[in-house]
């Protein structure tokens, strides 16, 4: 197939690596891609990938058989809509269904209508309105911006003043949700969805906070591991039955069928599993470890979802190996980031058995050097026979990479190794 992957980040790099590894020998293009994707031998043309008209024109010009939308921004902007209207297979929901991620208030309404287990939530539009709601819910306080916020719109704090400040910061941009605090282990579980049916991938857990021990502010994700040895044997079946399928069927019933990747952000509490949030695309960095273990051809499921044919496929198969990703971030992340510094040791890192790199924010410098261009720079992905081996490989490789002021967590997957 001729496949276009849209997006510029590490998630797209992981998708591209999975697709080009298939025996079918697909022609894969990633727009706009990044320097790491280009170094993988994949074309990375410039493209305004959040502009529906620009994307539609590019796809018509190049004649792609399948378009895979990576990040949330183009989905919420409606990039999938004109492509689907033209009969082009697209893996990614249209603008209306992408509100499942684009609006937390919309997602809560869908969950309530579908009977999906989740925490209590109240919408507020101002600091004055929020005070009474925070007092009603009690500490710890959970405050979420309604719209997209690049992983930084959620605050969990014991500090009431900080919670009110978060409301003040985000309320001018739209509604804010105050939610019930849910205590437990978090799980990311992805589902292929074709508008009516779903098929699950393997669960993963990510690390959102910047520092060891889950300290410091939220980030886009500092690491992840898969599978999850501590979940119940019937966990995936339970979430399929109680969360993913009811959600997709509710959206279908409302005339907004969800076609693409349904990301269920879950928490395992003492009283059962609850949904924290939905996303409308592959999660980053969980995708990198989930796809590292995928034994079935990814393209088969992407195309079947886009064409409404998941009922005809078996559930995807996964390696028994363990996978770990450790993310390297620039100095200052997730606040004011220092960029433009040289990265060293990338080739040496990939010499560690079972290791590959996924690039998020890199560029080629003089004479082939590598430069960090953003907050989360790259991820070190390692597979091993067990978590101890995968984790040892990931950190051995990460130790070979140099970046002045670089930060990474040292406790990724420590709880399972």
UniProtKB/TrEMBL annotation:
The keyword ATP-binding applies. Its EC number is 6.3.4.13. Pathway: Purine metabolism; IMP biosynthesis via de novo pathway; N(1)-(5-phospho-D-ribosyl)glycinamide from 5-phospho-alpha-D-ribose 1-diphosphate: step 2/2. Keywords: ATP-binding, Ligase, Nucleotide-binding, Purine biosynthesis. Residues 108-307 form the ATP-grasp domain. Pfam families: GARS_A, GARS_C, GARS_N. It catalyses: 5-phospho-beta-D-ribosylamine + glycine + ATP = N(1)-(5-phospho-beta-D-ribosyl)glycinamide + ADP + phosphate + H(+). It comes from the Bacteria. Signal peptide: none annotated. PROSITE patterns: ATP_GRASP, GARS. InterPro entries: ATP-grasp, ATP_grasp_subdomain_1, PreATP-grasp_dom_sf, PRibGlycinamid_synth_ATP-grasp, PRibGlycinamide_synth, PRibGlycinamide_synth_C-dom, PRibGlycinamide_synth_C_sf, PRibGlycinamide_synth_CS. SMART domains: GARS_A, GARS_C. GO terms for molecular function: phosphoribosylamine-glycine ligase activity. Its cofactor is Mg(2+); Mn(2+). Belongs to the GARS family. PANTHER family: PHOSPHORIBOSYLAMINE--GLYCINE LIGASE (PTHR43472), PHOSPHORIBOSYLAMINE--GLYCINE LIGASE, CHLOROPLASTIC (PTHR43472:SF1). This is Phosphoribosylamine--glycine ligase.
């Amino acid at each position: 197939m001729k496949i276009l992957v849209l997006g510029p980040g590490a998630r797209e790099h992981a998708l591209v690596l999975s697709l080009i590894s298939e025996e079918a020998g697909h022609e894969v293009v990633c727009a706009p891609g990044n320097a790491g994707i280009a170094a993988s031998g994949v074309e990375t043309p410039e493209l305004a990938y959040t502009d529906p008209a620009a994307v539609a024109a590019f796809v018509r010009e190049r004649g792609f058989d399948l378009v895979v939308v990576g990040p949330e921004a183009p989905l919420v902007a409606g990039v999938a809509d004109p492509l689907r209207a033209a009969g082009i297979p697209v893996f990614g929901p249209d603008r209306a269904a992408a509100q499942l991620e684009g609006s937390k208030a919309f997602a809560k309404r869908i969950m309530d209508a579908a009977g999906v287990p989740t925490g209590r939530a109240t919408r507020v539009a101002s600091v004055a309105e929020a005070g009474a709601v925070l007092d009603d819910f009690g500490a710890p306080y959970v405050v979420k911006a309604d719209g997209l916020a690049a992983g930084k719109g959620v605050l969990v704090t014991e500090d009431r003043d900080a919670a009110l400040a978060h409301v003040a910061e985000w309320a001018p941009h739209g509604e804010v949700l105050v939610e019930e605090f849910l205590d437990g282990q978090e799980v990311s579980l992805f589902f292929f969805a074709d508008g009516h049916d779903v098929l699950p991938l393997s669960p993963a857990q990510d690390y959102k906070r910047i520092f060891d021990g889950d300290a410091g502010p939220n980030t886009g994700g500092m690491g992840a591991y898969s599978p999850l040895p501590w979940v119940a044997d019937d966990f995936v079946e339970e979430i399929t039955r109680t969360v993913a399928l009811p959600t997709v069927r509710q959206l279908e019933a409302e005339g907004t069928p969800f076609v693409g990747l349904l990301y269920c952000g879950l928490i395992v509490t003492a009283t059962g599993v609850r949904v924290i949030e939905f996303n409308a695309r592959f999660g980053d960095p969980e995708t990198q470890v989930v796809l590292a273990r995928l034994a079935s051809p990814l393209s088969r499921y992407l195309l079947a979802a886009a064409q409404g044919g998941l009922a005809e496929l078996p559930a995807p198969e996964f390696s028994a190996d363990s996978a770990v990703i450790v993310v390297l971030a620039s100095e200052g992340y997730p606040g004011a980031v220092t960029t433009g510094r040289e990265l060293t040791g990338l080739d040496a890192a990939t010499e560690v058995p079972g290791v590959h790199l996924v690039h998020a924010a890199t560029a080629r410098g003089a004479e082939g050097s590598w430069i960090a261009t953003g907050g989360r720079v790259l991820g070190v992905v390692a597979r091993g026979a067990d978590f101890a081996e995968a984790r040892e490989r990931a950190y051995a490789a990460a130790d070979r990479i140099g970046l002045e002021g670089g930060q990474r967590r040292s406790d990724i997957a420590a709880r399972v190794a």
